[in-house]
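Example S7 (structure tokens).
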């Protein structure tokens, strides 16, 4: 049933593409929402990654930063780095109301998420605050996580994580400022008790937001929390082509 629903969902977008010819979210070329050339430019983190935060490191296991201050999630992974062409696509989705990019990016991430082999009962997007939701009209993370859950046959449960307070943008904040900014920002519902949860955001830098959300989920009684983002914002990173 889940695959049937997903195929119908994708066919609806395909019909809209015929009626309103799309432009690639990565390069702007006419003909598709995400072109093959942009997909070829997508790169994934290579080499040895920290078991927890997913950053490249010299040896296996948990990195020094996570050993000193371990995030609440069990593991964080990002599909790619926050750079063009994915950066352009995410900006179109987030700031230019191009919600079709949510489906286009989700479709590219399906195989990657499956290969993680995580045991997941539900997918929950990081919720927006009321002010941002009113301004934007939609949660950009939901535009990606909803079709991804549908394709994977996993329950989509956006109402199981709530934002308790408005927080300032994390852009430009230090690691400690980011952590303070999202401290006690979230609470979780009773439907997560005993479940393995995948919590998802569009972009992460230090993982502070995802860690705060994971902490709220664990406090509510989840079994395990995995964290996923479309992209990771980093000054330096080891990458490989998809």
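Recovered sequence:
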């Amino acid at each position: 049933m889940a695959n049937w629903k997903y195929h119908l969902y994708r066919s609806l977008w395909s019909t809209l593409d015929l009626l309103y010819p799309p432009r690639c979210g990565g390069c702007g070329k006419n003909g598709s929402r995400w072109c093959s050339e942009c997909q070829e430019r997508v790169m994934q983190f290579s080499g040895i990654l920290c078991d927890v935060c997913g950053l490249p490191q010299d040896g296996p296991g948990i990195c020094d930063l996570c050993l000193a201050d371990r995030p609440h999630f069990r593991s964080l992974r990002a599909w790619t780095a926050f750079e063009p062409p994915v950066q352009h696509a995410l900006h179109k989705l987030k700031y230019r109301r191009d919600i079709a990019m949510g489906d286009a990016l989700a479709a590219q991430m399906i195989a990657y998420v499956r290969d993680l082999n995580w045991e997941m009962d539900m997918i929950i997007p990081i919720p927006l605050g009321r002010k941002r939701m009113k301004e934007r009209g939609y949660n950009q993370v939901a535009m990606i996580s909803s079709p991804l859950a549908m394709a994977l046959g996993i329950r989509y449960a956006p109402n199981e994580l709530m934002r308790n307070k408005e927080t300032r943008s994390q852009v430009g904040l230090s690691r400690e400022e980011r952590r303070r900014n999202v401290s006690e920002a979230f609470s979780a519902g009773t439907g997560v008790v005993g479940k393995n949860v995948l919590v998802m955001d569009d972009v992460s830098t230090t993982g502070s937001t995802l860690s705060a959300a994971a902490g709220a989920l664990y406090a509510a009684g989840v079994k395990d929390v995995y964290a996923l983002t479309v992209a990771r914002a980093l000054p330096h990173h080891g990458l490989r082509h998809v």
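Notes on this example. The mean pLDDT is 90.
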